[in-house]
Design brief:
Blueprint lengths: L1 E10 L5 H11 L3 E6 L5 E7 L1 H11 L7 E10 L8 E3 L3
Parallel strand pairs: 2-5
Antiparallel strand pairs: 1-3, 1-4, 2-3
């Protein structure tokens, strides 16, 4: 099992990045959240099976069709198993 914190920069806000990420993460049975940040980044926390988390990271390199991903930071963290479902955070 794997847990990663992801930071995506580029044209990633206003292009359905969060909703498409939620849709894909749910299909992969990942837990966590995604949110827009005031600095223009999209930030996400993902937990799940190693291979499924890796698939989501691959998706993040491109994002939805209208997005342009310039940079992706992925930080591995200790798996906790305390996340349930995948949601869009508005905080």
């Amino acid at each position: 099992m794997k847990r990663v914190h992801v930071y995506v920069s580029g044209r990633v806000q206003g292009v359905f990045f969060r909703s498409e990420m939620q849709r894909n993460a749910t299909k992969l049975n990942l837990a966590g959240w995604v949110r827009n940040r005031e600095d223009g980044l999209v930030e996400a926390l993902l937990e799940g099976e190693d291979g499924d988390v890796d698939k989501m990271i691959v998706w993040c390199h491109q994002g939805p069709p209208a997005a342009r991903v310039d940079h992706l930071d992925v930080i591995e963290e200790p798996y906790t198993g305390n996340l349930h479902g995948f949601r869009i955070s508005y905080s």
